[in-house]
């Protein structure tokens, strides 16, 4: 394929990557807005009101933060039906509308605690669905050689707004009066870029792979041609499309497939089952290494490590987000399709494990008065961010979208992302309790053990998938799970057959046209 990047393709990537904004801003902007004086006053989160029930205050705060995550878990499951029935494009649009409606209800809850929790769940439905639709859509429009980078743009967009959220809160805390308008403005920010993405989606075609799975051959070729900036009769384009085309029997089978039959196929096929369980294991390990739990409570963690003052904590938290963003960009635009998935997540997990071990020692055996140790603890949090960014922050999204064939991709990825959100809900809900009940060092010891386990399990199980067409992933899993990590597929043989198939693809296209 030609290496020239088309402007419309870049436009499509940016529109779809905006689906990561709701999740990113929720982790940064909303989680930080809970600490604003105006929000605390409106929803009775002031410490002096809970002198005799500190646990009640902790639970109230945790519910506000975690209910959006709970809604997202169900949204990820619901996305399966929209993805396959409505198509990737309309599923993307509907998810945005649900999220935006929930966010508007959240912004104008006006101190009504029960309505706030309902709106958090409602907006979470849309945000969770977008975490399925956007990466999956991106993986289906990307060429195999740059698929990792393309899907990673989603995480770059997510982390950009996560970082931005901390700084917006800092500015609001510094310059705006502590009225309802303060937190309403902060929480409304993501409506602007996501709204622009919603409008932009009306200038895009649906996924060529989804169109092909519905037997809409001409539309599928036209969509791919528009994304690649080529004529519909271009031999290279038709050769690429031949790799995703389906025969009439397969299309008929897909049309008649039910949820039960699709799930049965996944669990009855050894290779599909291995791929599904690998994607599930990767999300499980990612969340229980600390992952997003640490992000949601990063301001508190910096204060535990010796940072004092709410504004200073917000600035430091923003810097933490920027470090994650910077290294995710390096990962997306250099490492992921150059070094490969395995090297990145093994390096990332190793860094996470090392920093967790240090933090466990710091909180368990080093006095608070030791300034050097405190500075090292703050530094280790940033090193942790680097490990998380180049490893399990993004790679589970890539694996989850590229491991499966089209006929089961939507179901498998929806279930995997639902598990991601359920685990994130659990982690966000229990992290403050773990830090308290386990005296901080115990929580870090637990996370370090998960990282160590992940190095072993994923090191044995997760194969290198860079540059491998999604239609050939099956070849990596024809062996026991603990030997899949060393499996390889010859990319050269694919390239030869790809270019050799030009004439066949043109002939197939001509035959269909006749």
TrEMBL record:
NCBIfam families: SP
InterPro entries with a match to the protein in the record: MFS_dom (IPR020846), MFS_sugar_transport-like (IPR005828), MFS_Sugar_Transporters (IPR050360), MFS_trans_sf (IPR036259), Sugar/inositol_transpt (IPR003663), Sugar_transporter_CS (IPR005829)
Major facilitator superfamily (MFS) profile domain mapped to chain residues: 12-466
Superkingdom of the source species: Eukaryota
Record carries keyword Membrane: yes
Organism: Aureobasidium pullulans (Black yeast)
Signal peptide as annotated in the record: none
Claim: Transport is one of the keywords in the record: yes
Descriptive protein name: Major facilitator superfamily (MFS) profile domain-containing protein
Family: Belongs to the major facilitator superfamily. Sugar transporter (TC 2.A.1.1) family.
One Pfam family of this chain: Sugar_tr
Subcellular location: Membrane
Membrane topology type: Multi-pass membrane protein
Membrane-crossing segments per the record: 7-25, 64-82, 94-115, 121-139, 151-172, 184-204, 276-298, 318-336, 348-365, 377-399, 411-435, 441-462
Record's keyword terms, sorted: Membrane, Transmembrane, Transmembrane helix, Transport
């Amino acid at each position: 394929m030609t290496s020239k990047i088309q402007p419309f393709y870049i436009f499509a990537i940016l529109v779809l990557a905006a689906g990561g904004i709701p999740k990113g801003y929720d982790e940064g902007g909303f989680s930080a807005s809970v600490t604003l004086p105006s929000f605390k006053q409106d929803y009775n989160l002031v410490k002096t009101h809970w002198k005799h029930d500190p646990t009640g205050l902790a639970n109230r705060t945790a519910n506000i933060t975690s209910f959006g995550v709970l809604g997202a878990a169900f949204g990820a499951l619901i996305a399966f039906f929209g993805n396959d029935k409505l198509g990737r494009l309309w599923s993307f649009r509907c998810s945005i509308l649900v999220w935006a409606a929930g966010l508007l209800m959240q912004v104008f809850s006006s101190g009504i605690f029960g309505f706030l929790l309902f709106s958090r769940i409602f907006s979470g439905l849309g945000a969770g669905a977008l975490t399925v639709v956007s990466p999956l859509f991106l993986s289906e429009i990307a060429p195999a050689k740059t698929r990792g980078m393309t899907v990673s743009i989603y995480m770059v967009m997510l982390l950009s707004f996560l970082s931005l959220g901390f700084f917006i809160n800092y500015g609001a805390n510094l310059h705006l009066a502590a009225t309802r308008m303060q937190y309403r403005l902060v929480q409304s920010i993501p409506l602007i870029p996501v709204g622009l993405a919603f409008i932009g989606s009306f200038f895009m075609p649906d996924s060529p792979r989804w169109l092909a799975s519905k037997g809409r051959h001409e539309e599928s070729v036209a969509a791919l041609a528009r994304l690649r900036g080529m004529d519909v009769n271009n031999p290279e384009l038709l050769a690429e499309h031949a790799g995703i085309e389906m025969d009439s029997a397969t299309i008929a089978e897909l049309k008649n497939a039910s949820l039960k039959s699709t799930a049965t196929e996944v669990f009855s096929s050894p290779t599909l089952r291995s791929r599904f369980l690998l994607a599930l294991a990767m999300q499980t390990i990612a969340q229980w290494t600390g992952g997003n739990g640490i992000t949601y409570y990063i301001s508190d963690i910096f204060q535990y490590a010796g940072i004092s003052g709410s504004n200073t904590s917000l600035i430091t938290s923003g810097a933490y987000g920027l470090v994650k963003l910077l290294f995710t960009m390096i990962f997306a635009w250099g490492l992921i399709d150059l070094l490969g998935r395995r090297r990145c997540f093994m390096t990332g997990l190793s860094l996470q494990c090392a920093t967790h071990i240090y933090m466990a020692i710091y909180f368990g055996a080093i006095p608070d008065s030791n300034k050097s140790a405190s500075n090292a603890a703050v530094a280790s949090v940033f090193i942790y961010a680097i490990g998380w960014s180049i490893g399990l922050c993004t790679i589970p999204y890539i694996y989850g979208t590229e491991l499966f064939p089209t006929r089961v991709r939507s179901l498998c990825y929806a279930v995997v992302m639902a598990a991601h959100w359920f685990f994130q809900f659990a982690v966000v809900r229990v992290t403050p309790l773990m830090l308290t009940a386990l005296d901080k060092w115990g929580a870090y010891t637990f996370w370090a053990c998960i990282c160590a386990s992940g190095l072993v399990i994923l090191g044995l199980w997760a194969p290198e998938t860079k540059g491998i067409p999604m239609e050939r992933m099956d070849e990596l899993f024809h062996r026991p799970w603990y030997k899949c990590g060393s499996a390889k597929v010859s990319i050269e043989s694919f390239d030869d057959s790809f270019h050799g198939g030009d004439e066949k693809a043109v002939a197939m296209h001509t035959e269909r046209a006749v």
